[in-house]
Amino acid sequence: MLKLFMSAQPVSPLQYGLGAVLSATKASGALPQVGDEYDFYRSFPGFQEFCQSQGDQLLHCMSQIMQYHGCRSLMRDRNKLTGLEERFDLVVDSNDAILERAGILLDEADGVNRSQQPVMPAGFQPPKIVVSSWNRKSSGSGSRAETFRLLHAKNIARPQLKFREKVDNSNTPFIPKIFIKPNAVKPLPSSLISNLNLIPSSPMRPEDLDVPAALADFIHQQRTQKPVEDMFAHPYQYELDHLTTPESLLSKPEPQMYKPIAETNCSFIDSLEDLVALNEKLCSLSEFAVDLEHHSYRSFLGLTSLMQISTREEDFIIDTLELRSEMYILNEAFTDPSIVKVFHGADSDIEWLQRDFGLYVVNLFDTHQASRALNLARHSLDHLLKHFCTVDSDKRYQLADWRIRPLPDEMVQYARTDTHYLLYIYDCVKTQLLETNHGQPGLLQSVWNKSKDISLKKYVKPIFTEESYLELQRKQKRSLNTQQHTAFRLLFAWRNKLARQEDESTGYVLPTHMMIKISEELPREPQGIIACCNPVPPLVRQQINELHSLVQQAREMPLLKVRKEKEVTLFGPHDTSRVSESDLPHFSPDGEFNEPETKNDQESLSVAHMKARRIIEAFENPFRMYLPTSDVHVNENAKFDPSSKIFEVIKKFHRFIPIQNYLFKAKRKAKADAKEQTKKVAGNGVSTFSKYTLCKVKHLTVL
């Protein structure tokens, strides 16, 4: 019934359009790639006709779109010699016009008028809502329309500049930031403590001055040959391995209804005193819910911008950008095995907590894993809120810039919703897990075990190597020559290096599609690189000369076609198109295996012998796939052993040899008889016997 109810819900045009675009993108990825694969499919008439019909439909659709936007549309005109170039120019002009119009409409919807001054971030000015056709949301029949509001931070100061501990973007492994281990059963390794300079470490050498502080002790241990396994291990590995789920957490709970969000107190934590008070309050509870808001576009590794915590009575929002260096205080509550920490989809949250704050979670329950165990229709938090709480979540600010300070009220309410109902959902899914398994705790225990596995995840820092670009290149499924391949490799390395230096994401420095465009085009001038980027990233414009030198360096490479990685070739038993004749075995007319003849032996053969050899080679051996190559040793005794495969193959091949020898000898005898009889004929006349003989020779030749 639930599936029928969900299927009966109306689908918005935006959702339908997004689904259509995703389906088309997925289908286009399965099409044959340009090259040998496409040429192979192109050889089939059915494929040609299908491509022709689909191409006509696409051209017709493009013409309609161009006509709708007032552009010239002659996409199906194929009579002119320069028709292809003209159609390409039409598409480029139409794209420019359509994108320009879309940009103007988006600016108007966002409240930006190009004739006015630039608009400051939304958090610092009175809200201005512009209603348009695309951002009107109907909340049901007969109700007034709601509006979306785009929130972004154009001129916000980078929060990384205020961090006391600078972000480490170096190309080195990640070392846990923890230096105090609350609720420890196994003590924290001394190597992690000395990394934070709490214990006097080894004296620094001059060549170590540029090394990050987190690696100083690691280098010293490498020099002194001390074990360093504990430095990269999970600090709470031992505690999680020995964690057992108590019976109280495996019994059927009584769901405790959540308080209305309007009647629940919400506290914003942005000072050390408030954070300490919150930690003391959490330590006195038996469970609480946690969620994070993350930002990744203007940071290389990413930033955890906000943390939401909800108890049964109140909600808390923590400014993690302001309290980044003090967040480790919450380890006392987060690692307490007697307190349940409820997350939804904690795979990324666990890694973000380790990377930014040195926080670890013991006794985690993931409602996403519970939803999968229950085989619900969908496993998102949006669906769980609708299913258990009949609450329609507002995902308008899911992609907002969470670095904005102060936070607008709309974003605060959105952040509260992610955790306010989570404890009630936790009670409901536990009850359903027990009811589904007839009261037995096996299914519920499996969810606890999977949640513990998520807690054991370790953050792995992205490490750049000389072959890092290969994975991205395989995903693109592009056939590049040596120059394009070199350009892609150099641009990938340049992008990674600059992103680490400027603490920007690789997508901000140079998006992947622009990098591929530059690699394929290989512009000769800097203006060509600018033309490949629309819009032009700021760092590309700043570093245009360096980019141009990299492209020129790639153009100096010899132009060769690069073989694709892991190329798969189809094989058939009688397909010798990919095998050279020198790799095939050689046979004599009597069926014996012969060694390949040398160049001197071939030169000593007469014209008649060479012609006879070509005739013999015209007969394709059907058993060639079973025969060894010329460089494989064949035992002479195996040729006469009836139980061997070689003997069986030779025996079958011998059946064709007598027929071949008979035709060859009969043809040679007929030619000799014809020559002898023609000598006996005098004058210009030709005897009847010689005519009969010539006809016989022609007949044998045809055979």
TrEMBL record:
Cofactors demanded by this protein: Mg(2+)
Swiss-Prot/TrEMBL GO biological process terms: DNA repair; exonucleolytic trimming to generate mature 3'-end of 5.8S rRNA from tricistronic rRNA transcript (SSU-rRNA, 5.8S rRNA, LSU-rRNA); histone mRNA catabolic process; nuclear polyadenylation-dependent antisense transcript catabolic process; nuclear polyadenylation-dependent CUT catabolic process; nuclear polyadenylation-dependent rRNA catabolic process; nuclear polyadenylation-dependent snoRNA catabolic process; nuclear polyadenylation-dependent snRNA catabolic process
Region Disordered, residue ranges: 574-604
Keyword Cell membrane: no
PROSITE patterns reported for this sequence: HRDC (PS50967)
GO terms for MF: 3'-5'-RNA exonuclease activity; metal ion binding; nucleotide binding; single-stranded RNA binding
Compartment(s) of residence: Cytoplasm; Nucleus, Nucleolus; Nucleus, Nucleoplasm
GO cellular component, one term: nucleoplasm
InterPro entries to which the protein is assigned, alphabetical: 3'-5'_exonuclease_dom, Exosome-assoc_fac_Rrp6_N, HRDC-like_sf, HRDC_dom, HRDC_dom_sf, RNaseH-like_sf, RNaseH_sf, Rrp6-like
Main localisation: cytoplasm
Gene3D superfamilies found in the cross-reference section: HRDC domain, Ribonuclease H-like superfamily/Ribonuclease H
Subunit comment: Component of the RNA exosome complex. The catalytically inactive RNA exosome core complex (Exo-9) associates with the catalytic subunit EXOSC10/RRP6 (via its N-terminus). Exo-9 may associate with DIS3 to form the nucleolar exosome complex, or DIS3L to form the cytoplasmic exosome complex. The RNA exosome complex interacts with cofactors C1D/RRP47, MPHOSPH6/MPP6 and MTREX/MTR4. Interacts with MTREX; the interaction with MTREX mediates the association of MTREX with nuclear RNA exosomes.
Family, as annotated: Belongs to the exosome component 10/RRP6 family.
UniProt-recorded name of the protein: Exosome complex component 10
Lineage: Eukaryota, Metazoa, Chordata, Craniata, Vertebrata
Gene name in the database record: EXOSC10
